[in-house]
Amino acid sequence: MDQLIFFINKVLVAGTVLGSIYALGAIGVTLIFGILRFAHFAHGDMMTMGGFIAFVLAALCAAAGISGPVPTGFIVLPVAMALTAIIALGLDKAFYAPLRKRGAKPVTLLIASIGVTLMIQGLIRLFFGVSTRSFFETEPKKILRFDMSWLGGSRPITFTQPELLMVIVTIVICYALHLFLSRSRLGKAMRAMSDNADLAQVSGINTALVVRVTWIIAGALACCAGTMLALDVSLTPDLAFNIVLPIFAAAIVGGLGQAYGAIAGGFLIGFAETLAVFDWSVLLRPFQQWLPFEITGTISLVPTEYKLTVAFVILVIVLLARPTGIFKGAAT
Amino acid sequence: MNLIELENVVGGYGGAPILNGVNIAIEPSDIGVIVGPNGAGKSTSLKAIFGLLKVTSGTIRFNGTAIENALPDKLVPLGLSFVPQEKNVFTSMTCEENLEMGAFTRRDNFADTLAMVYDMFPPVKEKRYQKAGELSGGQRQMVAMGRALMSNPKLLLLDEPSAGLSPRYVIEIFETVVRINKAGVGILMVEQNARQALAFASKGFVLANGQNRFTGTGAELIADPEVAKSFLGG
Amino acid sequence: MSPAVTRALGLYAALVVLIIGVGVGMGIPYTTRMLVEAAAYALIALGLNIQWGYGGLFNFGIMGFLMVGGACVTFISYPINQKFWNSDGPMLLGRALIAAIIGFLLILAARNAHRIGIKGGWKTTLIVIAWAISYVVFRSQIDPATAYIEAQAGFVGGLGLPVVVGWAFGGLVVAGIAWVVGRICLGLRTDYLAIATIGISEIIRALIKNMQWLTRGTLTVSPIRWPVPLPEDYQAKGMDTFSALIYARGGYFLVAGAIVAAVMVLLIRAYGGPWGRMMRAIRDNYIAAGSMGKNVTARQLEVFVLGSILIGIGGGILVSFAQIFDPGSYQPINHTFLIWVMIIVGGAGNNWGALFGAVFIYVVWLLSEPLAQLLFGSISDWSSHVGWGAIPDIESRSLQMRVFVLGLVISIALRYAPRGLIPEVAQTSR
What we know:
Chain A is an all-alpha fold. Chain A has helices spanning 2-36, 43-64, 72-75, 77-101, 106-128, 161-183, 185-195, 197-202, 207-232, 239-254, 259-277, 280-284, 307-321, and strands at residues 143-146, 157-160.
């Protein structure tokens, strides 16, 4: 029983949280890819930027004495998301739209997004320094414990309040997105444009509007993901680069352009990473007598330092086996 | 007044022009058919009307309004609709969603237009919740045309609607075109199946090298031995 | 003379003036150091130019290749660690190597299982099992080996061979890695390749950082030898510090510069010849080229490997010059993006453009450090004057300015000179 609790704490909870973060980031990437046809490398930095905006707002709230039953990070989240969305629109107008107008190739846009990444990174580090920040410098994280003694466990199932809220927020957002894409006129127009941009234009769909909506959604979700990651771990300027790879992997695995695929991919990679660095020795120890080898120390599939490689390996396998992804998105 | 009028239109995709002074005019009740050899500028004329390429000189008038180089999302509300030759359905969306996209520019309730389209294309109604990509070529063409009709156009542009279809579907498509025209929609159609198409045409235009070669009613062109010899395969 | 050539000459002349200016402003020792490093970066940029400019391949894992090049030259040229060779270390490593080979053969056998009639889902299962067994067996040998080496001898040490051999070895190993990566990834579209190379670079970085038994990881390896006499050697012969620096660095520059020059000659000849034309045809329209019977993937693999060799050698040159191998010092910004800026601004597809871009951007990059500190220092003085207090962490923050400037340069270049300052000359005879 204790082993199961350990598993739930370390894998189920952690995997769900990580999967949520990856999923929200991957949705933005996949939508931008489907509609604008380029890999938005700067997405990781958009997440970091969103996280920092939320951080500043939360600090302002704390200074103004505003607080609530949930961490201030969550309270300011809607505002931060709106701000990030506006910035995303601005970035497109300044850097990507001019190139698109000239008929730039996707690769050129990728390089442009790298330029944007560097600029955002530089600015963030400039203003905030390189140190790590936490949302919880002034308020503690509430930890929720579920006593499991009634099932024979000696330890409680624990997770933090931010983690619970994160999962709730993710579910709400994903459901809202689903409704938007499947029921609303604009959402369907987005899907149409992702499917066949030329035909969408010929049908009279206002492609400029769809592009704007795409950036708004991508920006808002990126902010959400970045803030959640910062709430879960801590806020560093390096956040971005480490996360670009898993997010792109999630988007590609799920099928580029398929929002639902991005969600699935995000959770797949989140759980894969968590399982890979999980210490299986704890689970296996009670069965030691039946096992042919001795359990010493920790057994994990992949040492923690190589966590990043898990996403990458999954990506390579998927690219080799099924390049269009789980949900059959855009192909080579 | 002419529904649509191209006057000495010159244009292309950048670089050498493909259209070298094309003149086309049809009235609201016409079925206009454009035929000619490959590279004559047939599809290009349609694309010029729909703002999909650059018109460098000449005018295009729709009900008197100049529309050269206007963007599609302005043209659809005006009453034009275009069915491209290839990739003319949203394959990942259901048939009904495809039709809904056709009505994107409409702000009113389009339920009766939807009913009308389903009436005209029963197979589409049957498969309305299926993804358009799973349909056969002929059925897809119906979805494509249905999509274009959803915006209640006054002029329907069709680019080789019978391309790649089996003979049975070719006849069906042309009959459908006639029906649409009778319902009050002007038709301008590019066709490779020249003889069959001209049989329905009230106005025919034979293009070659981006210019007009012969103009007349469909019947006249079929009967003309010169046209028949050069362009209709004798 | 065509306007393009005049422009190129003008730009190069301006570059020379800039370098002289740096020499006057920052001193000759600084400038010589800058020139050596610029030469190394030029080589790396030329390598990337082959991959991107000729082949249209998006290599974003330059950092990883540089690290491998550096690790190789360290391994080859660092003095022999007797403690290692005297211990059981070599034998344990040998066993791990055998385990690896056995595992590799196992996987190879599984992949060929269809020859004995095992196909489809069964074969895939077999391959997965083979991989799993190989992984477990290898880990069972290598883990105790590495623990032992780290405990007994610190790390495997070097082979004490000449530095230039180390560079060449680096190039070779990187070529091997590039070959494997290319085989797996080259069928994919360009942006996928970008992600793939980033991932591989990160994996390489994680491996090198953590394989303390091989590279000493974050404990670093130093001092690493030069191919020419060090300043200390000249000083020992009685020269003063200043001249010693100049002579020593000058010597190093001659070696590096000679390599760059040789590579330039080879590249220019290859570019103009049939191989170069074919590569560019593939880059511009690989569908058409494929339908003409050219084996596109094989050619792309060629280009990828060739470019990687240059990158590996450049990485070795940098590490030898710095005399220290520190895996922690590699940053994607310095070692991947910087190179990309070099060829985008310089002119992708044009060797002279890549060379120009490398030197120019490197000078700008280096100068931005003192300039940024100057700028921030004066702002900080002003702000403390005004009563807002000095800017904290000014050192690290002003350095971040470089990152911003780099991004800005990319954006401006793409907007106003998308093909670079010395762009590829359009071939009139197609």
